[in-house]
Amino acid sequence: MTKNIFNFRSLNPILQFVKKSSLSSMLLFFSAFMAMVLANTPAHSIIKAFLSQEIGFTIAHLQVYKPLLLWINDGLMSIFFFVVGLELKRELLAGELSNPKNVIMPIVAAIGGMLFPALIYAAFNYGSGTESINGWGIPMATDIAFALGVLYLIGPKVPIQLKVFLTALAIIDDIGAVSVVALFYTSEISFMSLLIGGSFLSVMFLLNKLGVRKTLIYAFIGIGGVWLALLLSGVHATIAAVLAAFTIPATKAIDKAKYLNSLESLTEKFKLAKKAKQDKYLLSSDEENIIGEIQRISMEAMSPLQRLEHSMHSLVLYFVMPVFALANAGVVIDKNWFDMLTSPVALGVMLGLVAGKIIGIFGLCYIGLQLKWFKMPAGLNIKMILGVSFLAAIGFTMSLFINSLAFESDLYINQAKMGVLLGSLISGFVGYLILKREIDPSK
């Protein structure tokens, strides 16, 4: 019993994320579909006006008022990036990315999967105008929730090594995407606000070193200090979420041996505790106290980083990403839809995803394997890598997010959306067919 309780608490976060991705990807797809439908009905003007409404707050002389769409893209997506930051820290400390042998192939794949899509987009939009070329970052991103969701649809025969490889690739891709947003998609920078944000961030790192483990303290300083300062600085506020995630303590207050001993002792006490008169329905006060103590030590047997990651995954998968898709995925399809689809922006995004990811990920992996830079992960083959390369070309959430930063023109935004949606749809379908045939040829 003791062993089972501990194992439940210590499940691999990658496996938990994979299990949730099938349902969440369907919800994400439904949200995107509804956004497309609503964008082409009379409700579009109402929704656009609603998302344009400015909301905010005033504290003394500080006034922050932004359109609702910006709060979704900068606020809700900061939660998404915070979880990304937690994943990155956990993987670097104790996950797949902590072993150099496990990361060489995903790193090479991720670099190729970011570089070639950007080059293809730039080739299509070179000389098309200053704003048009700004979209080079859109096809660089991988939507891990959608990609794992498609992988999950293939069935239980999918090798876990394939899921881990795709997840590691996407995590490294996220590092690249965060860097691109920080370096290239920012407005004019207020160095005073950056200094204030950096000061609050230093306080959070200091609290970590001092052993403070209350997540509410980190949330208060992270949101009210780091995030708000970066929002006002001109550097995109989602970067604050990633930085704040790296300050969250990753150590446990109770080690495994002490936890197991305490749990065995409390279990014996529970057996001997005085029962309530109506013990079929109620617990005695002694039993309640023992259960409370079990819950307390169980919480302390997990690091604050793991607790936050587990608790916030569902919020991100089932609320943040669907709301973001509903607010951002709508494209107005009019009689000029073919011109939009064949525009340099749409073609650059679509082919950047479909062709760029395949050339970058599969191409560099193939070359690296031939030159013996790294070895093929156990249980995988070159066709599986090709299939995963297509799945990694599903850009959706991150691509739409960078799209919202890259352009101000509604025309370019809608053209890029069409490229993202069509490119992701093609890539997901082709990747599914390749992997289905390779992994489960009987069906």
Task: Give structural notes.
The chain is mainly α and 443 residues long. It has a domain at 20-70 and 100-186 and 317-439: Na+/H+ antiporter like fold (Up-down Bundle), CATH 1.20.1530. It is 73% helix and 3% strand. The chain contains 19 helices and two strands. Strands 1-2 form a two-stranded antiparallel ribbon. Helix 7 (144-153) packs antiparallel against helix 8, helix 10 runs antiparallel to helix 11 (238-245) and helix 16 (344-370) packs parallel to helix 19 (410-439). Mean pLDDT is 83; it is low at 1-11.
CATH class of one domain equals Mainly Alpha
Distance between the termini: 39 Å
Strand content: under 5%
| Overall SS class | mainly alpha
The sequence of SSEs as H and E is: HHHEEHHHHHHHHHHHHHHHH
Brief rundown of the structure:
This protein has 443 residues and is mainly α. It has 19 helices and 2 strands. It has a two-stranded antiparallel sheet.
Give the tags:
443 residues, mainly alpha, Na+/H+ antiporter like fold, 73% helix, 3% strand, globular
